Amino acid sequence: MSRNRWMLLLATAPLLTGAVACGVDGTTPGLEAKTLFLSVVPEGGSTGVDPAAPVEVRFDHAMMSGMEEYALLHLGGLTGPAVAGTWSLSPDRIRLTFMSDASLQAGTRYTIHLGGGMVDEGGRPIDWEMRGFDMGGQWATETMMGSGMGTGMGGVVGAGHMGSGWDHANGSYGMVFTFTTAG
To answer: Scanning 1, 27, 51, 166, which has the fewest C-beta atoms within 10 Å of its C-beta?
Structure first.
């Protein structure tokens, strides 16, 4: 091997070794792979949705236990009351499903609110941006929630809709998807 090639190899070896040692494979903070948000049913902007159908959100990795606490279904928009029902993770924790205590009202607008700080079982954030907008999603902003976070969302927000599970790094409070049931 020529001296120049040898010197080049010696000069680049620490860079290559450092890249492997630092986990450029997706484990380095700031470079971590994000869990993909795969789908929401019904998608934002949907109309004629079956009022008895469940709401379902899918991810490509198992979610951390407890992430169902960062999902709400609102009557109307974000300032509307939460719909009575239960959010639950599937046994493999890839599906998050909402079952209403009663059928949803016919011909009525609803909003799914998913926390911007939700994470998978490894603590990796959800990548809402990659597919969320394609499914009719939009960021939940303080303006959408009403002024004064303590009184926004019709008194539902309070301190419970702020913090790590709701706050996204972009300053939003997660992503929302609005749909209307069949009339």
So the answer is: 1
